[in-house]
Every structure is written in C-alpha cells, then in structure tokens.
Amino acid sequence: MISAGDFRKGVTFVMDGHPYVVIDFQHVKPGKGAAFVRTKYKNLKTGSTREEAFNPSDKFPRAHIETKEMQYLYNDSDLYYFMDNETYEQVPLTLVEVEDAIKYLKENDSAIIKFYEGRPFQVEPPIFVELKVIETEPGVKGDTATNVTKAATVETGAIVYVPVFVNEGNIIKVDTRTGEYMSRV
Predict the structure, then answer these.
(1) Of 7, 84, 155, 157, which is the most buried if we count CB atoms within 10 A?
(2) How far apart are alpha carbons 138 and 34 in whole angstroms?
(3) Which domains are present in the chain?
(4) Is a pLDDT exceeding 70 seen at residue 76?
C-alpha cells in the first residue's frame, strides 16, 4: 500500500480497479484547514488524465507494472504483432494499445511493452529512431532563414517537420517523445 502523502512522479497505484501513474503532484498545506495532495494522474489503460486532491493519509495498493523488450514483427489489418525476444511468443496488440508508438516503428524494431496483470497496455518506441523520408517538397535554393521547416512523410507514415535541406531519400533521426527532427544521418 502507498499513501497519497508518498506520491511522487512515476509512482503507480490502483484506484477503483484501474492502474494509474502520477504525472504531477503538489503537497498543499493551507493556513486554515487540513493538508492535501493535489495530484495529476494518468489511467494506464485508457491514457486519460485527471486531477484530484487526496488526503495525505489516503492509502492505495501499488500497481505492479511489468516491462518487456519486444520486437515489432508486422501488422495484420487491425492487429500489430510483437515477439518476446526471450520466449519467442507473439503478442497481438490493437491500434489503441500501440497508440502513437506505431508511427515510429518499422518491422523488426525493438520496443518496450508494458503489462499490467499480464495484459499489455502500452508500447514505448526507442527514444531515437532513424527513418527514411519518402515524401517532402524540394528545398528552395537560397532559402537560408533560420528555423525554416517543411513537412516530410517518413517510411512509417508519420509526418515530421524538417529543415529545408532535407530531401526525399534522406535518412533522419527523430525523437519519438516529441516527434521532432534531430539530425540527418
């Protein structure tokens, strides 16, 4: 059990049968009245966030999250298949479970899959990925103003804003946390 007074960023807990992770917290002790913990937390299954004030003595069971590195194999209409690198077991995931991560994953790429009670609920791609630009407008010669960007579609279908000197066929490094262009490879 964990008390609300012990909440920190990244702490997982179970409330009403759903697993949550603390995104932000603030211990508040007003001049008048009892202290409380203002908490912003995210549902690990649905991804929805909420803010709520808890009494510091409120207790919750910890949510035990298991993580595994798995390899993305392929997608078959609505399902995305990942393989456990140790047991070679294949796990099918829905589009809701792979969310934004699939925009940055190519076949055979590794990803971190998070499980709660044996069920996968979230996919985390590597922090940096290298992707090939398949479609973008050609750069205009002489357009050297700083921070000029253009939209580029990469091989996974994601749209990344890149500097004007990046052309089709270039391989770029992308930060998957923000979706931003990092460099040309």
Answers:
(1) 7
(2) 62
(3) 2-60 (2.30.30.30), 66-124 (2.40.50.140), 128-184 (2.40.50.140)
(4) yes
